[in-house]
Design brief:
Elements (H helix, E strand, L loop, with lengths): L16 H11 L23 H21 L2 H9 L16 H9 L2 E5 L5 H9 L2 E5 L16 H8 L6 H16 L3 H16 L2 E4 L2 E4 L2 H4 L2 H9 L4 E4 L2 H5 L11 E5 L2 H24 L1
Parallel strand pairs: 1-2, 3-6, 5-6
Antiparallel strand pairs: 3-4
The structure holds fe (ii) ion.
Length: 287
């Protein structure tokens, strides 16, 4: 997917031989001899960011954090403080001031740099290990308002603060284990919908108010406001069966969103569903 943006993203950071090797490994992950997902990881190569890249991060951070202070879930805001997400520079993934250094003692989650799009099983294998595959390039200045694929602003600013919360952290790992385990296309489709309507585009009710937590909303100046205020949006109470039966479209603002009561509700629903998937696998193995 990253190749579609060739010439606009800062590809010097990921296009070396190590990046290509890691991507080829990820593409073949699961085949005989390709079982070690850590070989899909690369270094962040921090020196590769240009001053324009850093300016893009600061612009996005300032614009979005001002809005999120009143409109994001407290769990997100507290996570952002815990991992010491700052406006001054693109986050470090490794080293004493890195998000990983602050995350590790909280939940054991880590962000791992990857060269581009990971196939589904490779992505799930990372989550099952409490490792989040992280895009390291940042959107070009001319695409600051919209990028159709993840970049480091979406992946770190949007996703990672929630990984500091023990309840969400457990949910996401259980999700990864279940999705990695099943080969049933019905479950695979249902799990993709669950990810979409929670991790990417979820809302939560806190203190009687609707708040944002899905990364696709958190990292999008336009869609975050739309999700909370647009009159045409159908904001439904979260119910796992309903979510898993709702199809989604990717190329416009979401007309349907699901609202959690708490992250415990999400974790518990996922635990129940994961047990169902795992016991179904066990039954097939015995039959
Ligand atoms: Fe995402």
């Amino acid at each position: 997917m990253a190749n579609k943006m060739s010439g606009s993203l800062n590809h010097a950071m990921i296009d070396g031989p190590k990046g290509r090797e890691a991507q080829e490994y990820a593409n073949r992950f699961g085949q005989p001899g390709f079982q070690d997902i850590t070989r899909a990881y690369i270094d962040q190569n921090y020196a590769g960011y240009t001053e324009e890249n850093q300016e893009t991060w600061r612009t996005l951070y300032d614009r979005q954090m001002a809005y999120l202070a009143d409109h994001a879930s407290n769990v997100y805001l507290s996570g952002a403080r815990s991992i010491k997400l700052v406006r001054d520079h693109i986050p470090y993934l490794e080293g004493p001031k890195s998000v990983n250094t602050f995350l590790m003692p909280l939940t054991g989650w880590q962000s791992k740099a990857v060269p581009g799009y990971l196939p589904a099983k490779a992505f799930f294998a990372c989550l099952a290990r409490r490792e989040f595959p992280t895009t390291i390039v940042i959107r070009p200045k001319e695409s600051i308002d919209y990028l159709p694929e993840p970049d480091i602003f979406h992946d770190i600013f949007g996703h990672v603060p929630l990984h500091a919360d023990p309840t969400f952290a457990d949910f996401l790992q259980t999700y990864g284990k279940a999705a990695l385990t099943t080969d049933d296309p019905v479950h695979t489709e249902r799990l993709a919908r669950l990810f979409w309507f929670t991790v990417e585009f979820g809302l939560i009710r806190e203190g009687g108010k609707l708040k944002l937590y899905g990364s696709g909303l958190i990292s999008s100046p336009g869609e975050s406001k739309h999700a909370l205020t647009a009159p045409g949006v159908d904001r439904r109470p979260f119910d796992l069966e309903t979510v898993c039966s709702t199809s989604f479209e990717i190329d416009h603002y979401q007309p349907i969103l699901y609202v959690l009561d708490s992250f415990e509700q999400l974790r518990d629903a996922m635990d129940t569903y994961a047990n169902r998937i795992l016991s179904g696998n066990a039954r097939r193995a015995v039959a």
